[in-house]
Amino acid sequence: MAGSGLVDLPGGLFTMGSDDHYPEEAPTHRVRVDAFSISPTAVTNDEFADFVAATGHITVAERPIDAADYPGAPQENLQPGSLVFTPTDGPVDLRHLSQWWTWTPGASWRHPEGPGSSVKRLGDHPVVHVAHEDAAVYAAWAGLSLPTEAEWEYAARGGLDGKPFTWGDEARPEGRIMANTWDGLDFPWRSTGESGYLRTAPVGSFPANGFGLFDMAGNVWEWTDDWWTTHHPDDAGSPCCAPSNPRGGDLEASYDPRQPQFHVGRKVIKGGSHLCADSYCLRYRPAARRPQMVDTGMSHVGFRCVRRSARTGLPLLSTAGH
To answer: Which tens digits make up the pLDDT trace of 61-88?
Structure first.
């Protein structure tokens, strides 16, 4: 079970965010997190299978869909399933994600590429197609929690404050591949295959960061428990989180303004995935962050868990103006 081999982190001040990459990562600001413990890897298929066997949990991707919750959705999409990455036949306009993401009825954590696929030989790969609820219920069952965005980023940095990558300054130090990301520039149709993986890799296949944590960059995006915000707080002298909302962000503010018909909140996911390509999505960095609808799992989204101090049960999270 996850939680039996957590890595203890001391907490402290660190520089969160980036002013040099995507706008949602700015501005950089100093944040303090309390001490906590975190899983060295993402939750695996074997670990999730143990949870399902013990609890009978049915994931969001496996449940019947109520058409009233998705007005205007095509009838063929109103059945259990999830979004699966599908390589294109050639170069495409990278502004349109629908060209490589396919709604696949029957896709779930058990069938990561849709009906006919299985996790039989993927026990040590990160579980995917888990919605935020699935991750949170697993964490509670294990006596753990999902990390806040600040906790996750602090852990990912591995003690290298302000560095662009979890391992330092260069994407490939001395040519070494440090994470499971898209190989080459021809996303989403042709990978060079240098890393040896076209989809997920077994957890721990690439070097750990300075805290002994694996895959804090690439492999799968990971859920946090913070509601999405379009940027970090720009007043570094004020608390980032109101007492009534110790997690970051706000439910209403997290809705997607481009899809007003869907009142589905979005949480922050972190770390990038095996689909991050330098030519398209340079987000296999600790500062990188993306919104993910809480009811939507995908074939490149997973999670890991944390344990906090019994004294507070919540992280100490504040900004510092120095």
So the answer is: 999 988 887 777 788 778 899 999 999 9
Q: Which of 172, 185, 180, 198 is nearest to 271 (CA)?
A: 180
Say whether 140 sits in a helix, a strand or coil: helix
Neighbours of 211 (CB within 10 A): 20
Secondary element (H or E) of residue 252: none
Angle of helix 45-55 versus helix 132-141 axis, rounded to 10: 70
Q: Are 15 and 161 in contact (CB under 8 A)?
A: yes
Domain ranges of the chain: 1-322
What average pLDDT does the segment 295-318 reach? 77
Output the CATH code of domain 1-322: 3.90.1580.10
pTM of the model: 0.89
Cis preceding linkage at 286, omega within 30: no
pLDDT of 253 above 90 = no
Left (φ > 0), alpha (ψ -120 to 50) or beta: where does 211 sit? alpha
- What's phi and psi for 12, nearest 5 deg? 135, -170
133 by DSSP, 3-state: which?
helix
| Number of residues that this document lists for the chain | 322
DSSP 195-209: TS-SS---TT-S---
Q: How far is CA 137 from CA 51, 57, 63, 203, 292, in A?
A: 10, 9, 15, 21, 17
Q: 153 phi and psi, to 5 degrees?
A: -70, -40
